[in-house]
């Protein structure tokens, strides 16, 4: 039971005088991480596009839904597990793909993988990771110590050099990643004032390009190795990173190339969701990239119900604004199969590396379970639209 964590905290405090090493909710993680991070790293992580209207809308959308707890329902047996793409997850939670995590902690994605596998939470490793995907997979699957083997998916930023994109997919298959998540909303960075004012783009100093630099197809496009001529390698990265020409036909093409499940991340319109499924995708991630791309875009939670109506039965993951157990419950009630945790995890990483990630996940798991059972629901499968009312009704 995840909620034993609550008992542990109280017991350690009351019997041993020890308080938790880190805060236990989002604002605390955010504030403490702000103190630790450089101004550039903090701006990159916390910042969003434009006036950050969409980032705020993501949170406001959660506040427009309220849970009505029901009483006197037997919740003595509880089950937080869900089945996603034929695999059982202990909780409806995975880690969102996040790039360049060495700006938050020196061990970057390797620490994230360790923290995630200790909590049994699947991790989606980003193409823009600061560590090559093979290193992340090794950390995920490392069962030394008391860690269990973790579960990983690979997030693909689809290069305009299709052979490089395909090489990433082949490497992900070989490394043991279990699904491909194609992110389609960020083939170019949006107007991000917090980064612009600090002129901060970590990729230009070689952070977040490890998957490219270590790729044999990418290397074959260079006259000299990335070690011999790092500037040329970064220039090539800049010219082929994103692919504005992608269409649904490319998803259909990818379907023919790999037997791994494919999810498309960054979907906000029901017709796009339908087109992804028609092209052979197994599901979508409803997301506006945490408000980091189109400022003024609709809150991600508000996009969810129409997409569920359009492609219900396919796998639907959700992110953008998930901060606590109640948010997880609301997204599930509106039809998501599971949620992705983004910034809360990055702040945990900044606070304490693998231990900080583990702590944040443990808090979210316990908070979710408690919220669910105290609302009178013993099983995730029973979370549905009847748990919610609109705040303005
Ligand atoms: C610092 C940072 C880096 C990100 N890098 C990636 C990435 O490499 N690939 C990707 O698909 N999404 C990336 N995202 C978006 C997340 O996967 C996710 O959609 C977003 O964080 C959800 O919003 P939230 O963190 O506000 O909940 C990034 C987000 C942040 C904050
Ligand atoms: C040049 C684009 C790199 C983007 C990678 C990280 C990301 O997705 C983000 O939101 O930042």
From TrEMBL:
One of its GO terms (molecular function) is FMN binding. FMN binds at residues 97-99, 126, 155, 183, 265, 287, 319-323, 342-343. Glyoxylate binds at residues 44, 157, 192, 289, 292. The active site is at residue 289. Residues 18-393 form the FMN hydroxy acid dehydrogenase domain. InterPro entries: Aldolase_TIM (IPR013785), Alpha-hydoxy_acid_DH_FMN (IPR012133), FMN-dep_DH (IPR000262), FMN_HAD (IPR037396), FMN_hydac_DH_AS (IPR008259), LMO_FMN (IPR037350). Pfam families: FMN_dh. It comes from the Bacteria. Keywords: Flavoprotein, FMN, Oxidoreductase. Its cofactor is FMN. It comes from Antricoccus suffuscus. This is L-lactate dehydrogenase (Cytochrome). Belongs to the FMN-dependent alpha-hydroxy acid dehydrogenase family.
């Amino acid at each position: 039971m995840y909620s034993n964590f609550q008992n542990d905290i109280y017991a350690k405090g009351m019997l041993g005088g020890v308080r938790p090493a880190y805060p236990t909710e989002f604002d605390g993680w955010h504030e403490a991480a702000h103190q630790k991070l450089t101004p550039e790293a903090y701006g990159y992580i916390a910042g969003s596009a434009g006036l950050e209207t969409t980032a705020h809308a993501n949170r406001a959308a959660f506040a427009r839904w309220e849970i009505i707890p029901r009483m006197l329902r037997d919740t003595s047996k509880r089950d937080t597990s869900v089945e996603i793409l034929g695999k059982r997850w202990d909780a409806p939670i995975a880690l969102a793909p996040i790039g360049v995590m060495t700006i938050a902690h020196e061990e970057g994605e390797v620490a994230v993988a360790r923290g995630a596998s200790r909590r049994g939470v699947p991790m989606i490793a980003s193409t823009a990771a600061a560590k090559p995907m093979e290193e992340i997979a090794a950390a995920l699957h490392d069962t030394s110590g008391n860690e269990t083997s973790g579960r990983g998916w690979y997030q693909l930023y689809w290069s305009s050099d299709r052979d490089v994109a395909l090489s990433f997919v082949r490497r992900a298959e070989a490394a043991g990643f279990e699904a491909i998540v194609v992110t389609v909303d960020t083939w170019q960075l949006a107007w991000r004032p917090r980064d612009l004012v600090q002129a901060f783009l970590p990729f230009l100093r070689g952070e977040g390009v490890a998957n490219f630099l270590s790729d044999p197809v990418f290397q074959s496009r260079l006259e000299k190795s990335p070690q011999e001529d790092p500037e040329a390698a970064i220039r090539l990265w800049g010219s082929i990173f994103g692919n504005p020409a992608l269409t649904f036909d490319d998803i259909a093409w990818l379907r023919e190339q790999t037997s791994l499940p494919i999810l498309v991340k960054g979907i906000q319109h029901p017709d796009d969701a339908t087109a992804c499924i028609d092209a052979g995708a197994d599901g979508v991630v409803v997301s506006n990239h945490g408000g980091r791309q189109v400022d003024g875009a609709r809150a991600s939670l508000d996009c969810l119900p129409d997409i569920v109506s359009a492609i219900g039965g396919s796998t639907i993951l959700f992110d953008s604004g998930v901060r606590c157990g109640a948010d997880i419950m609301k997204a599930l009630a509106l039809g998501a199969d599971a949620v992705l945790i983004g910034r809360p995890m990055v702040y945990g990483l900044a606070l304490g590396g693998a231990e900080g990630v583990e702590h944040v996940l443990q808090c979210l798991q316990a908070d979710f379970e408690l919220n669910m059972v105290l609302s009178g629901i013993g099983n995730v499968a029973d979370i549905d639209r009847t748990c919610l009312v609109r705040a303005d009704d």
